[in-house]
Write a structure and sequence with these properties.
This protein has helices at about 1-25, 25-35, 40-55, 65-80, 85-115, 130-135, 140-150, 150-170, 175-185, 190-210, 215-230, 245-255, 260-270, 275-290, 295-305, 310-325, 330-345, 355-375, 380-390, 395-419. About 75% of the residues lie in helices and about 0% in strands. By secondary structure, the chain is mostly helical. It contains 20 helices and no strands. It starts with a helix and ends with a helix. Among the domains are: about 10-120, no CATH class; about 310-419, no CATH class.
Length: about 425
């Protein structure tokens, strides 16, 4: 029986591979080569024309330029087989152009990935050979040339070029606005997955800007997130939902007071997370939701169950625990936690120090709040502290400022009562 079942399994595997082959454009490419080798010109002509059409449309995804390589190669074999030299020369120019586009686009993609993942990089990459080569190429001039001569195929190249520019400069709002408009206007021209990925890239850029203290980008990130959700970009997604995206929607939605939407999102999308992350991330989400609802014991209970190993989630968990301790007036626990939190931040190895610095300032200002909570300060001192919080790039600055405002009100009420 084991032998029979093993044989059936092998037959099933061969069948599904054959089905995949039948639906794959490579079938036509291989068939074209075989017709050329066997001298069956009428069928080769027909297949060549069919494959030519596949390469005549503007690229709708970053993979289009890569996937065209084999198609173009098989057509080149057809022209060589039948000595169509004039057509082959034109075809070689087309193939070279496709290669140029692929090189430029993939260069931008790799550069973008390096720039958007600096938090997880321990060593600088600017001095590596690929980055040195990158700096020697005048991409501004290349993109301008392509936009002028081939506007339809320039869309993806221009988009990824602008992604790299805006990731390199967190204050380049002119190019970010161009990028945003280019993505939104062309969403219907691009394939569904490319549209989704480009919206995610807008979100990454906005997140990096928010992390540098540009608070106006919080709303931008959340609006892009809702575009992705409400536009049903995840409905046919075979991949697991990104934990980083899940975290961003929860944090920003709650910070903007959209609690009901966030709660609905958590209930709908937790099941789309990677199986081993579903339960801990759902606990993480509800810890934040319960905190916003001022249900502090429920928030702490869910936070203790989250048990996430990712560094960013660990930082988030410590910061949320500190806020819970403050709200419940557990000052001894809070002092101990803040000391341990400071030590933890010192030991994180990353080239991206922005998030570390933001959280160090959170610890510093929360310690200041503890000091003044039980001792009166004049309004000038409190105003100075508030101005400092607003000017510096601080994690959870809105919450810290609100707590300072509460203390100020309490002191003011005390003065009013004695007067």
């Amino acid at each position: 029986m084991n032998t029979i079942l093993s044989g059936l399994n092998q037959i099933c595997e061969e069948f599904i591979l054959y089905q995949d082959f039948r639906n794959d454009p490579q079938r036509d490419m291989r068939l074209l080569r075989q017709y050329c080798k066997r001298g069956h010109k009428p069928k080769a002509d027909k297949l060549s024309a069919k494959l030519e059409k596949l390469t005549s449309f503007p690229a709708s995804s970053a993979m289009d330029f890569f996937e065209r390589f084999e198609i173009l190669e098989s057509i080149d074999f057809y022209y060589s087989s039948y000595d169509k030299r004039k057509l082959r020369n034109q075809h070689l120019i087309k193939s070279l152009l496709n290669l140029d586009y692929y090189f430029i686009l993939q260069t931008f993609v790799y550069k973008k990935e390096l720039l958007s993942n600096t938090f997880y990089i321990e060593n600088k990459v600017d001095d590596t050979l690929p980055l040195k080569i990158f700096k020697e190429i005048n991409f501004d001039r290349l993109i301008g040339m392509i936009e002028s001569a081939d506007p339809e195929n320039s869309i993806l190249l221009s988009i990824y070029f602008l992604i790299g520019k805006t990731l390199s400069n967190n204050f380049d709002d002119v190019n970010y606005n161009k990028l945003r408009e280019l993505v939104i206007v062309n969403l219907k021209k691009l394939d569904f997955l490319s549209g989704k990925n480009l919206l995610l890239n807008l979100q990454v850029i906005s997140t990096m800007r928010l992390n540098t203290g540009r608070k106006e980008y919080a709303k931008e990130i959340y609006e892009i997130s809702k575009l992705l959700i409400d536009g049903k970009f995840y409905d046919n997604d075979k991949n697991w939902f990104r934990p980083s995206h899940y975290r961003t929607i929860i944090k920003l939605g709650l910070s903007l007071g959209d609690i009901e939407y966030v709660e609905q999102f958590v209930n709908n999308y937790s099941k789309r997370l990677e199986p081993n992350l579903r339960i801990p991330l759902k606990h993480f989400a509800f810890a934040n939701i319960f905190f916003e609802k001022q249900m502090y014991s429920e928030a702490l209970n869910n936070l203790n169950k989250s048990e996430l190993n990712n560094t960013l989630y660990k930082i988030d968990a410590r910061r949320l625990t500190a806020k819970i301790y403050y709200e419940t007036n557990s000052l001894e626990n809070l002092q101990s936690l803040l000391d341990a939190f400071s030590h933890y931040l010192k030991n994180i190895r990353t080239t991206d120090q922005i998030i570390i610095a933001r959280n160090k300032r959170f610890v510093k200002y929360l310690k200041e709040l503890i000091k003044i909570k039980e001792s009166k300060k004049d309004s000038f001192e409190l105003s100075q502290l508030q101005n400092s919080m607003e000017k510096e790039n601080v994690s959870d600055s809105n919450w810290l400022i609100q707590k300072l405002y509460d203390i100020s009100n309490r002191f003011y009420s005390g003065k009013a009562d004695t007067g």
